[in-house]
Amino acid sequence: MSKGSLDAPAKPVNSLTHEVHSEDVAPLQVLSPEGEVINPDYMPDLTDEQLKEVMYRMVFTRAWDDRAINLGRQGRLGFYAPVSGQEGTMVGSEYALTKEDFVCPGYRDMPQIVWHGLPMYQAFLYSRGHQHGGQIPEGVNVLMPQIIIGAQILHATGIAMGFKLKGEKRVAITYTGDGGSSEGDFYEGLNYAGSFKLPVIYFVQNNGYAITTPFAKQTGAQSIAHKALAAGIRGLQIDGMDVLAVIYAVQQAAAIARDGGGATLIEALTYRFRPHSMSDDATKYRTKEEEQEWSLRDPLIRFGKFLEAKGLWSDEDTARVREEAKNAVNEHIKKAEQTEKMTVAGLIDSMFENTPAHLEEQKADFQ
């Protein structure tokens, strides 16, 4: 009988000798939950002023989130996904980049693109469904939040390919959640980036739930970081509640990408303190005990303790920044509300440099 026939001696499936193995991972940390430095080798090289700026942005983002939730309840914003708890991943990852780098966000990632240069009032217009919200100013290297889960991963991959073809020392970063890692676009992007060694960072904010689906039901993999192995790119898991670990990881990944070393997948373990969206009830799938446990790792408290020990931050600073944020949000929502109302003609004109003739005819029907 031919070689490899069915009567060849069979081996039990648990005796495979060439099985691919991967080691367990432990999240990279710089600070303990108490704000003490436990891994000084991973401390990012930041001045005192830069450390204070990071804290400023995190406190500002928390206060902005508080106000945005109230605006949503008043009907003054459209869709809004709360961000409290994830300030470490959002602020830290964007801060580690340059303004020449490109940010491709998901639906919860409005803070990153505002800190990257998008005016806040345009973020509010976007939430309100106004076309001007998506008219990104020249020189602001962001896309608007992608509502289709995972689609932004392919956008960032393509942008990174453009950087490589042009020989530019720039990096694209894209964000998704643990649920987004189950989408086909996620695997396509990683595989393509691995094949062509593209300068892109895939940043997964694993907050434990894809709306209501817990991570344990999301994948059989040990971690999302392990999924980098099959694509031939670097994979790293970090403590997303530790903003210094986030900054260090993204700085390193960006430096490797700029030097032609290719892509990195970063899985940041984090937690959203609030519901998935304004229509979600997190009490249906999370326990009070779980929420309390994660609250002890609050990125603002953790980093705040570190700065207080260095004499760089105080409760008075937090109160001052929260007041600044409240005033800024009120100013920008007022500007958004005073923006000229959207028209059909304006919507069409905003989409084309030279409007096609058939659309010009349709515009006339609305005038």
From TrEMBL:
Its EC number is 1.2.4.1. The keyword Endoplasmic reticulum does not apply. Keywords: Oxidoreductase, Pyruvate, Thiamine pyrophosphate. Its cofactor is thiamine diphosphate. InterPro entries: Alpha-ketoacid_DH_E1_comp, DH_E1, PdhA/BkdA, THDP-binding. GO terms for molecular function: pyruvate dehydrogenase (acetyl-transferring) activity. This is Pyruvate dehydrogenase E1 component subunit alpha.
